[in-house]
Automatic annotation (TrEMBL):
This is PTS glucitol/sorbitol transporter subunit IIC. The chain crosses the membrane at residues 22-44, 64-90, 145-167. It comes from the Bacteria. One of its GO terms (cellular component) is membrane. InterPro entries: PTS_IID_sorb. The lineage of its organism: Bacteria, Bacillati, Bacillota, Negativicutes, Veillonellales. Keywords: Membrane, Transmembrane, Transmembrane helix.
Length: 182
């Protein structure tokens, strides 16, 4: 009988912990995310959507900015998953690499811009708790994540671009060979 009661108490404690976490989000991170999203959307409106999109389209022409500046701005301004809509500014042949760069940045941005991807916030906060327990500052962690993230997304974008273009060229040669045999 005691075992059943202990299981029931443990089961209820699980839901109480979930409720406590939810309450902490409602009074902590959710208002922060809403204010950040409002500020970012207001900035886009102030700049002007046409001007903003024009600059984004121009920035995707260059490899360096296509896999650094554009994904970073997309994630900060739009958050995940809306940031992937910035792929509309990228030439078709670069879209897989752009997506790879953007999706790879949704975690490193979380420390400085928690509104960008709420689901990654759980991972970041777990790591942050360990860093704080060791006596280190979260600001340093957030900045380091951000900077290393930019390097990583550039490398991933560049490598994915090269792989995609190679495979596309190889597929084109194969189709040409098949057509010659018919």
């Amino acid at each position: 009988m005691e075992t059943i009661a202990a299981i029931a108490n443990g089961f209820m404690a699980l839901f109480k912990a979930g409720g406590d976490t939810f309450t902490a989000f409602v009074t902590g991170i959710i208002p922060l995310i809403i204010v950040l999203m409002t500020a970012v959307n207001s900035l886009i409106k102030i700049i002007g959507e046409e001007r903003f999109y024009h600059v984004a389209k121009k920035a995707t022409k260059y490899t360096l900015t296509r896999y650094t500046v554009v994904p970073v701005l997309a994630i900060i301004f739009m958050g995940s998953p809306m940031c992937f809509t910035f792929g509309q500014f990228v030439e078709e042949k670069y879209k897989p690499a752009f997506y790879d760069a953007a999706v790879s940045f949704v975690h490193p941005v979380t420390g400085l811009f928690p509104h960008a991807n709420g689901s990654e916030l759980f991972v970041y906060m777990g790591i942050a708790a360990g860093v704080q327990a060791l006596g280190y500052e979260l600001g340093e962690l957030a900045v380091r994540y951000f900077l290393v993230g930019i390097i990583i997304i550039f490398l991933r974008g560049l490598i994915t671009e090269k792989i995609y273009l190679y495979l596309k060229a190889r597929d084109g040669r194969r189709k040409t060979q098949e057509a010659d045999h018919v």
